[in-house]
Amino acid sequence: MRMFLSPLLDLVYPKKCPGCHRPSLGICESCKSYWQCPPVTIVLKQSKVSVLSVAQYRNEVRSVLLAYKEEGEGEAGKVLTDALIKARLAIGSNLTCTLVPIPSNPKSIRRRGRDFMMDLCTVVAIQSGDKVLPMLRVNRDVKDQSKLDEKQRSQNLIGAFDCYSKNPHLNLISPVILVDDLLTTGSTLREAVRALGQRGLVPIGAITAAHTGFSRHK
């Protein structure tokens, strides 16, 4: 029945590009082009960690990020994983690393029914040959970052992450790469670097699918 109804539903509710929302069977070529840039290197302020990121933030990029993050849209997820893999390989294709996803608030995970960053990291690791170790967790309530400025974001995240693992010898794991979907002010990644540092871990870099104009380029 579902197979029979699907073409009819497409006529009533035509499929749209998750980026620009225009009629399309998937992500349109114009929106795909925003994700086909070579990775840029961004140095986090007050940190020695460099971030490799692909898409420059704009409305269409934001829509693709939200389509996967909030709705689990499959084609949007593929665009994000392709961008993360491109950034990951730019760090070094001959390295076997440990990918550490930036943690989501437990409330957000329950609302979405999944940990979208863990899902992205798992797909990237399968293709890059890396390992995934979700060793960061949110230890307190934090405000929604979307409407905060750079100073407010930094204050909002101070001490918000813990680094935990059942492995007592964390310093023996392979080189660590932090993974997030979007780089804005860098406060989230700086907090992750701080939390890892308390366990003696210094990431060799970080990767994100997209970045905003707030970021400072090397």
Provide structural commentary:
There is one protein chain. The chain has 218 residues and is an alpha/beta fold. The protein has a single domain, classed as Rossmann fold (3-Layer(aba) Sandwich). It is built from 8 helices and 8 strands. The chain has helices spanning 2-12, 29-33, 59-71, 74-91, 106-112, 116-128, 150-157, 187-197, and strands spanning 40-43, 50-56, 98-101, 131-132, 136-138, 161-163, 176-183, 205-211. The strands form 2 sheets. A 6-stranded mixed β-sheet has the order 1-2-8-7-3-4, with helices on both faces. Strands 5-6 form a two-stranded antiparallel ribbon. The chain is globular, with a radius of gyration of 18 Å. Mean pLDDT is 85; it is low at 1-11.
Brief summary of the model shown:
This protein has 218 residues and is an alpha/beta fold. The protein has eight helices and eight strands; from the N terminus they run H-H-E-E-H-H-E-H-H-E-E-H-E-E-H-E.
Count of alpha/pi helices: 8
The CATH topology label is Rossmann fold
Characterize the overall form: globular
C-alpha Rg (nearest Å): 18 Å
Low-confidence stretches: 1-11
Q: Report on the biggest sheet.
A: 6 strands, mixed
Mean pLDDT: 85
What amount of the residues lies in strands? 15-25%
CATH class: Alpha Beta
How many discrete structural domains?
1
End-to-end separation in angstroms reads 55 Å
Main sheet strand line-up = 1-2-8-7-3-4
Please tally the β strands and state the result.
Answer: 8
Structural class: alpha/beta
The percent range for helix content is 25-40%
Give the ordered list of helices and strands.
HHEEHHEHHEEHEEHE
If classified by CATH, what would the architecture be?
3-Layer(aba) Sandwich
